[in-house]
Amino acid sequence: MIAPTVFARQARAGGAALVTVMFVLIAVLIVAVSAATAALNAEKSARNERDRHIALQAAEAALADAERDIAALDPASARAAMFAPGSVLGFVDGCGQRADDPSLGLCSRVEAPGVPAWIGAALADGGDGVPYGSFTGALMPTGAGTLPARPPQYIIELMPFPRAGEDASEPVTNFYRVTAIGFGSRDATRVVLQSFYRKPTPSAGAAP
Length: 208
Fold this sequence. Notes:
3 helices, disordered C terminus, transmembrane, Pilus assembly protein, PilX/PilW_C, transmembrane helix, membrane
């Protein structure tokens, strides 16, 4: 006959084993959840980085498109007249905003303490800027897969570029500040880039 104390010891041993197994299972579950969370975060981070690169490349493309715009591919166009040597034609406060206006996206310089046009422009909202290819005919596929959600845009500000002995109030050479915004495959992903461009003129020689 087995003594009652033997059954008691076996019950206690079984209970301790069950608790140990439960702790082991909980530890395994915690490790598994942590690993899954880390994997999801890494995938999300990689997706965000890829999306940022898409927006960055779109913004860079917009800067290049703006330079082609300034270079005036069609010298006989109304747009080309805006970038004629020494011209201030078309550069207005608030930037030209009508899509059918040759002065679209052209902004006059705002003197301090005013807000510069590139800060006040509603580029992210689709206003004020020149959509990619509007004046150059360039095309950029958008809206699917790893393509930008929508075309990038840019604005061009006329900037002073006086040289020694010249009147700072008289623009004798064409110097511009270009601000571009690019979008990722998600519209919320945006990259803004800026560059300065001096257009070569017969008197100014080649741009540096």
